[in-house]
Structure formats: structure tokens, C-alpha cells
């Protein structure tokens, strides 16, 4: 046979790709590196929202809020927490809605929002580091509960805190949804209890808290510098929208009948997490303030000790047991999400770099292993410094993605849809990638004091402003030519075919819905996005030969 593209004798068709059993099982794999098929999105908006919100059970909020207010005082600290919450909510709305509409996770969204195919590998590591850092912080809190409740040494507690979440994280969305739903009533009751006890027994403490000047001499008045540094610590949580998006991609298609429920779930489970998150930070600061004279500053920053002091008057001899149970349940809920989301991010990174994918579950182990090492090295001790530095990079990334979604796309400076497949993307798009690198580099230099104390305090906001300005500016300068390497004639915005219809991938032989399919010049037929990613011998020939006619898709949806 003759190759119609080159006129040369066609070589025998290469053998079909066979995935490892774990990678081929979508009930565990959860479409981890690809578009979430419509047929897989079998959960209601309420269930998806409940599962996503289960991930905000973390008690690092208590520690973060306590750290900010104890360092900078009530006025500066609380205003910093609230201001950061506003920034996180506003930037989270377009990201959450885009992931829910397009059925993609944060990594795939970043690819199509100005970073390019390999450009988003950097953000995969940024996001993976977010899940690792917070897994280690949450695991440390669980280990502290084990130590206080049963005297378990911290190093052993760190190991137990890691092992206990593996069964849930390994089994994907189905198991996570059940766990989050079953544990929600206990968690809500445990969260509310200490504040109800304080309000009934010591209502005057709230006024005392409002005049608290911190433990480092900050004073009870407003300090712009303290406000800025406190806001920077709170803004480190901006990457949490990625974990919310990992669940929001399973939202059912928005229809006329479910429109209100759909938007309610997206807003609540997307940016809405920060409403409760900010309340928990302020609540954690209150409990730390109340326990300060009893447990000391070091233990006041560990959520279990202040929590225990708050519930003792109501629960008496069972207070320690209840407090430990609440902490353990909370940390299982959040660290399951951290391990799950981290596995997606690590898998996305290594699949592109190594052209191999053994399965998402292996990267659960990678994520947990790195986090365990951080725990053993005492990451919790450096909470403020770690989060303050990290926020400079995280906010530059989120700012660049947000700018593409709310500025570049509406103005027509970038494609109005999310293109995530290798076959249609340039390796690096200087618009998003360049904006993030420049914004994060400048803000990190500012963070270390190169531009004075004021910009050091507000370095994360500096990163956000630079990213928001650079994205449309670079999109105009480059005329948007680095967004697409070639038009998508299979499932692009101009295609009128039913997106639920399937093509059989010519590489692996499995059926996938049209948004996950590209036309492959090497195979002379359809190829799924993951097989396209893993191919290391095609040298992106499709980007120079043009589109390949594909057979009519199958009407039967993928299973």
C-alpha cells in the first residue's frame, strides 16, 4: 500500500497500544488525563458539589488563621483573611464554570488557557506541590491528634496519617463520593460545636478577641504591612480551586431543567469553598486566642489543642475522644482529596515528559510518599514561610488562567473553547506561560525585599496584577497565533456533530467521545487524547500534514 501523504510505500501498521490494567480501569482511573466523558458523569449536581465540598474539611484553615492573627493582630489579620477570600472567590468563578462546562481538570484547562502543551507541565508541578504541601500539613495535624489522644509518637503518627487515606484515594470518584457523603454529618456537628459552647458559656470572649493585638507586638490597630503579609499567607490557598475543579469536571451537562441547580452547585463547590474557608480561619484564630494562656503559643497553632480546650466544658471526660475523632475524620476527608488531586497532576506531568502512564493510582503513592517525607522533616513548623513563598507562584498561575478566561477569550484574542489535545497545541504558548513566569519571578524577588518592605508584603497581589496585564498584552502582541497549532476539525467549536458520539481510537481500540478524539496523520485515523500524549515517535506530524478525514462516529456513547 502507498502512503497518501508522502507517496512512499506504507509500512505495516504498528501494534495496538495496551494499557496497564490499572490505567485501563476507568472506575479507578476516572479519566485522569483526558476529557471526562458525558457518559461517565452520572452524578447529580448535588452529589458532585457535596463531594467537592467534602475536601474543604481540612483543619489547616484553623492553623493558618491562628498563625495570621497571632502574628499580625485581630484587625490586620481578619481583614487580610477576608480580602484574600474575595480575591480567591472572584478568580475561582470563571475557572470553576469552565471546568464544569468543558469536563476538564485544572491541568487540561491550563493547557488551553494560554500555556500550551508542554508549558502547562510547569503548572502541573506547581499544583502537585500544592497538594503535597497541604497533605503534609493536614497529616501533621492528624498526627498531633494521635499523639495527644493516645500518646503515639509523631513519626509513627505521620506514617499512620498517610496510610489511612490510601484506600479512599486509590478507588477514585465513586469511593470518594461515598466517603465524603457519609462523614459529612459528623464533620458539620464537630465543626459547629466549639463555637456554640463558647457563645453560650463565654460570650464576652468575642469582644476580647476583637481587641487582640497578637503575640508579636503587632497591636490591635490596622497595619498595612501586617495586612499584606497576612493576605499573602491566606492567598496560598488560591490553588484549592484546582482540587475543586477535579470534581467539578464530573458535573452533568447544563440543561434548561437543571440550570439553577447546576450553577448553584458550581458556585458553591467551586469558589464557594472559600466562604467557609475564611470563616474557619477566623474561627481557628478565635480558638487559638482562647487557648493561648492554657496551652501556649506553639500548641495554640496546632488545631487539636485549642479545639479540645473549647469542647471540654460541654463534653467532659469524652472531650478528648471526640476531638481526636473530629480531627481524624476532617483530615481523612481533605487528604483523600489531596492525594487524589495530586495523583492527577503528577500523572499529567509524567505522561508528557516520559510518554508513559502506568495508571493514576501509582501517582497516589508518589504524592503520599513525598508528603510523608515533608512531615518527617517538620514542615508544619515552617507553616507561614512555606505558604507565604508558595502564594507568589500559585497566584501568578491562577491569575494568568483567569485573565485568559475573562479577558482574552471574550475579546477574541484566544479560542473561545478549551483545546487540550496535543495534536492541536503548540508546545509552549508565551501568553500564559510567559506571563506566569514573569509575574512569579518579579513577585518572588519582591517577596525577598528587593523593592522594599511594602511590596514584599504585597508580593502576591503584585503577581496577580502583572499576570492580569501581561496575558491580554502578549495575546495582542503575538496575535494569538500560539494558541492553536492547527484548527480542530474533529470536535472544535465549528463542528456540529453530536459530541456524545464516539470514535474508536486507532491506537488502543477503545471508544471515546468526540471531544477526546484527534485526527492522527501517523495512524491515518482517529486517536484518543491519551494515546496521542504517549506517542513518542510521531514528531507531531499532524501539525504539518493537515487534517485526516475520519469515518462517521458511532452514535452509541462510550462506557
Give an account of the 3D structure:
- The chain is mainly α.
- Helices cover 63% and strands 3% of the residues.
- It is built from 24 helices and 4 strands.
- The strands form 2 sheets. It has a two-stranded antiparallel sheet with strand order 1-2. A two-stranded antiparallel ribbon has the order 3-4.
- The chain is globular, with a radius of gyration of 24 Å.
Short description:
The protein is an all-alpha fold. It is built from 24 helices and four strands.
Highlighted features:
559 residues; mainly alpha; two-stranded antiparallel ribbon; 24 helices; globular
List unreliable stretches of 5+ residues: 1-12
| Gyration radius over CA | 24 Å
Strand order of the largest sheet: 1-2
Helix content: 55-70%
Topology:
Elements: H1 21-24, H2 26-29, H3 45-54, H4 60-72, H5 74-102, H6 106-115, H7 120-150, H8 154-163, H9 166-170, H10 172-201, H11 205-210, H12 224-235, H13 240-248, H14 259-269, H15 273-300, H16 304-315, H17 319-354, H18 360-376, H19 383-408, H20 432-447, H21 453-457, H22 459-477, E1 502-504, E2 511-513, E3 517-520, E4 525-528, H23 529-534, H24 542-545
Antiparallel strand pairs: 1-2, 3-4
Helix pairs in contact: 3-10, 3-13, 3-14, 4-5, 4-12, 4-15, 5-12, 5-13, 5-14, 5-15, 5-19, 6-7, 6-19, 7-8, 7-17, 7-18, 7-19, 8-18, 10-16, 10-17, 12-19, 15-16, 16-17, 17-18, 19-20, 19-22, 20-22
Amino acid at each position: 500500500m502507498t502512503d497518501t501523504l508522502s507517496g512512499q510505500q506504507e509500512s505495516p501498521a504498528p501494534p495496538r497500544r495496551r494499557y496497564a490494567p490499572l490505567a485501563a480501569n476507568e472506575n479507578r482511573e476516572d479519566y485522569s488525563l483526558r476529557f471526562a466523558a458525558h457518559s461517565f458523569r452520572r452524578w447529580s449536581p448535588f452529589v458532585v458539589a457535596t463531594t467537592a465540598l467534602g475536601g474543604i474539611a481540612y483543619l489547616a484553615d484553623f492553623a493558618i488563621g491562628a498563625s495570621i492573627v497571632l502574628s499580625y493582630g485581630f484587625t490586620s489579620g481578619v481583614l487580610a483573611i477576608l480580602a484574600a477570600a474575595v480575591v480567591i472567590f472572584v478568580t475561582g468563578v470563571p475557572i470553576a464554570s469552565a471546568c464544569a462546562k468543558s469536563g476538564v481538570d485544572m491541568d487540561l484547562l491550563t493547557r488551553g488557557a494560554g500555556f500550551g502543551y508542554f508549558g502547562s507541565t510547569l503548572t502541573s508541578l506547581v499544583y502537585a506541590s500544592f497538594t503535597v504541601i497541604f497533605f503534609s500539613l493536614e497529616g501533621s495535624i492528624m498526627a498531633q491528634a494521635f499523639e495527644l489522644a493516645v500518646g503515639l509518637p509523631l513519626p509513627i503518627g505521620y506514617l499512620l496519617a498517610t496510610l489511612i487515606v490510601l484506600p479512599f484515594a486509590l478507588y477514585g470518584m465513586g469511593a470518594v463520593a461515598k466517603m465524603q457523603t457519609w462523614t459529612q454529618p459528623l464533620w458539620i456537628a464537630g465543626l459547629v460545636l466549639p463555637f456554640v459552647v463558647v457563645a453560650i458559656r463565654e460570650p464576652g470572649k468575642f469582644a476580647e478577641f476583637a481587641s487582640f493585638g497578637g503575640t508579636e507586638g503587632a497591636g490591635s490597630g490596622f497595619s498595612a504591612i501586617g495586612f499584606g503579609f497576612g493576605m499573602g499567607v491566606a492567598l496560598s490557598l488560591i490553588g484549592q480551586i484546582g482540587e475543586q475543579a477535579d470534581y467539578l469536571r464530573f458535573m452533568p451537562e447544563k440543561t434548561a431543567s437543571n440550570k439553577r441547580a447546576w450553577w448553584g452547585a458550581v458556585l458553591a463547590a467551586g469558589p464557594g469553598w472559600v466562604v467557609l474557608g475564611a470563616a474557619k480561619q477566623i474561627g481557628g484564630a478565635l480558638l487559638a486566642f482562647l487557648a493561648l494562656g492554657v496551652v501556649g503559643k506553639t500548641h495554640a497553632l496546632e488545631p487539636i489543642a485549642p479545639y479540645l480546650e473549647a469542647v471540654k466544658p460541654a463534653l467532659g471526660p469524652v472531650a478528648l475522644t471526640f476531638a481526636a475523632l473530629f480531627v481524624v475524620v476532617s483530615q481523612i476527608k481533605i487528604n483523600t482529596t489531596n492525594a487524589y488531586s495530586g495523583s492527577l497532576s503528577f500523572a499529567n506531568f509524567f505522561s508528557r515528559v516520559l510518554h508513559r502512564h502506568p495508571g493514576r493510582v501509582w501517582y497516589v503513592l508518589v504524592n503520599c510518599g513525598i508528603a510523608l517525607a515533608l512531615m518527617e522533616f517538620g514542615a508544619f513548623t515552617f507553616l507561614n514561610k512555606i505558604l507565604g513563598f508558595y502564594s507568589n507562584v500559585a497566584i501568578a498561575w491562577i491569575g494568568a488562567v483567569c485573565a485568559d478566561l475573562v479577558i482574552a477569550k471574550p475579546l477574541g484574542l484566544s479560542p473561545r473553547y478549551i483545546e487540550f489535545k496535543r495534536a492541536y497545541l503548540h508546545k509552549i504558548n508565551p501568553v500564559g506561560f510567559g506571563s506566569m513566569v514573569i509575574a512569579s519571578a518579579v513577585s518572588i524577588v519582591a517577596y525577598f525585599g528587593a523593592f522594599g518592605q511594602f511590596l514584599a508584603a504585597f508580593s502576591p497581589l503584585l503577581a496577580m496584577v502583572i499576570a492580569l496585564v501581561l496575558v491580554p498584552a502578549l495575546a495582542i502582541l503575538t496575535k494569538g497565533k500560539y494558541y492553536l497549532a492547527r484548527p480542530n476539525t474533529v470536535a472544535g467549536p465549528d463542528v456540529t456533530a453530536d459530541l456524545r458520539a464516539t470514535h474508536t481510537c486507532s491506537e488502543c481500540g477503545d471508544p471515546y467521545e468526540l471531544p477526546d478524539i484527534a485526527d492522527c496523520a501517523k495512524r491515518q485515523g482517529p486517536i484518543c487524547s491519551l494515546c496521542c500524549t504517549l506517542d513518542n515517535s510521531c514528531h507531531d506530524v499532524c501539525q504539518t500534514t493537515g487534517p485526516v478525514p475520519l469515518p462517521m462516529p458511532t452514535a452509541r456513547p462510550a462506557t
